[in-house]
Target: Ribosomal small subunit protein bTHX
Amino acid sequence: MGKGDKKTRKGKIIMGSFGKKRPKNGPRVTPKKQKEEA
Model:
């Protein structure tokens, strides 16, 4: 398990592939609406 293993994050980085462990677009974080203080 490691650089040659396609199922691990490290292996996917080495091979340049994406999937469940290493999605192309990172987790979607929506910015919280800030309250306007007058």
